[in-house]
Amino acid sequence: MTYWTAPKEKRVSDLINSVWQPKLIASLYGLAYFVNGYTRVVFSIWIPFFLFQERGLDTVDVALFVGLIYVSWSWKMFIGILIDAFPIRFRGRLYRRLPWFLTAGLLYLAGALIFLFFDPTIMPVWTTFLPTILLVTTAGAFLDIAADSYAVDTTPPEWHGRVLGTASRMGRVIGGSLASLIPPILLNIGGYRWVFFTASMLGILSFISLIQKEPPLEKERLFSREAIAFTFTEKTVIIGCLTMLAYSFSLRPIASSLGGMFAFIVKEVVGVSPELVGRISLLTLLSGIPASIIGGWASDRWGHKNVCIASSIALGISGLLWLNLKEGMIIWFIISATIIGFFYTINLASLLALMGDITPLALSSTVYQMYMSFVWIGNIPVSVVVGYLLTINLPLCLGLMIFFTFSMSVFANWIKPFEVAKAVKT
Hints:
Elements: H1 8-17, H2 22-53, H3 59-68, H4 76-85, E1 88-90, E2 93-95, H5 98-117, H6 125-154, H7 160-190, H8 192-201, H9 225-232, H10 235-248, H11 252-255, H12 262-270, H13 274-286, H14 288-302, H15 304-318, H16 330-357, H17 364-377, H18 379-392, H19 394-414
Antiparallel strand pairs: 1-2
């Protein structure tokens, strides 16, 4: 019996057991997403208010800006192909993940130096400030690629919910919570310049991930014609991409301050007070702490697909709480946003675990990042459409997003593990 015809469960077990270190892997994966969460909230919440208050841009222009700052995330799958196909040799060993942790840290450092020496309030918005933010978000994309790929490389399928789901969501929520608390203080000390500087400087924590040991490239980890053929002839991969595309059009952009468009809802309801915005962001993010634990544990206990389907439906139903949202309804907004954020976090934890299930080890960076890229491919049109609809018809905007949220459950139901995918159970 050849390696490729051995039972999948045995193949996956042989490759994972020698490198699986649950505490270290989960902790460093959570740390990467802590950085991700802090910078995402700073850029998703504070950049819009910076552009509204300091630079005088209107809602449509700000929505376009927010959509563009994550454009580098839409081509993560192409970087993923290069990472899988062309490992870097150093001192006699091949490395696929560690060089990108290093690259991310260096780019974050470059962004921090720019904000240290140049004031964003006088930078030309589109020709200087936008490229600088793109530099930092590109660093975030590289960190995401490296962290996701390493986690998929080393985590057993039965732990996907607790690592790909819980560790990443917990790290992101904690980082996002701090990004809700610290910037209002920094605004009083040194203005938006120090808000963006700290977000960039925090990225040097990427260097800590260099202590991890990469698994050897052998057997099913090898980038090969067989792996490519077995993967891209499977309809499950296409369904996975469609699921993530539906996710990009779902309630995701407005369900959390991590989503990119949450600030626009806040602006419509409560205005642009930095202190109040920070408190609301913090309160809604805190619901993600228990939700990330529940989402990861429940997914591993009852099945990643089952929890993804159930939580998609629950998230869609919770979105109805905003149909009658109006200016001044601050208490109702906070309560409903906390509920929506809770179901959103559970849904995302199970969704990420499910995507890990249908990712082959030989193409773990390529395929997993392909799924993630489909979220960001939809980001620019979603940002523009949502930014426009929010100014004219909130119920219509919510109705469309709720429809796509429900559609995620339909796509997820069609997902089935395939021969070279990582999952060992349906």
